[in-house]
Design a protein that fits this description.
Elements: E1 4-8, H1 9-14, H2 16-22, E2 27-32, E3 35-40, H3 43-51, H4 64-72, H5 82-86, H6 91-100
Parallel strand pairs: 1-2
Antiparallel strand pairs: 2-3
C-alpha cells in the first residue's frame, strides 16, 4: 500500500464514496488548508499495522511469559560472532570512570548538572 493520494477536504466531500473505495488499495490523505488532517487506510492495512504494534515495559514490569521467552531464546548462529564484540564490555564501567575524573564536564557534556 505504497501509493498515497492526497486530496483536499472539499474534493473529498464531493466524492466520499470514491475515496472510500480508493482507500482499500491506496492510502488517502485528506488535507485542509494545505495541512494533512486525516489518513484513510483499509481495515486490512489497519489490522496489519496493529499486529506490529509494540508493547513497552520497564524491565521490572515484564510479564513472566516474556521473561521465559527471553530465557528460551537462541541467537541465530549467523550472529554468534557478535558475542565476541561485547564479551569484555561493562556498560557501567564507562560511567564509573567518567565520575572518577576530576573534570568539571561530565559525560553528558553539561557542567555538573547530570552527575
Amino acid at each position: 500500500m505504497a501509493d498515497i493520494l492526497r486530496v483536499s477536504e472539499t474534493e473529498f466531500g464531493k466524492e466520499v464514496d470514491r475515496y472510500l473505495d480508493l482507500s482499500l488499495t491506496r492510502t488517502v490523505i485528506v488535507a485542509r488548508d494545505g495541512q494533512d488532517r486525516t489518513v484513510m487506510i483499509s481495515a486490512g492495512e489497519y489490522q496489519r499495522l496493529k499486529r506490529r504494534d509494540r508493547r513497552v515495559y520497564r524491565v521490572a514490569d515484564l510479564p513472566d511469559e516474556t521473561i521465559d521467552a527471553i530465557r528460551r531464546s537462541k541467537v541465530d548462529p549467523r550472529y554468534e560472532y557478535l558475542d565476541d564484540l561485547i564479551k569484555d564490555w561493562n556498560p557501567l564501567g564507562f560511567l564509573r570512570r567518567s565520575r572518577d575524573r576530576s573534570s568539571s564536564t561530565p559525560v553528558c557534556g553539561r557542567p555538573r548538572s547530570c552527575t
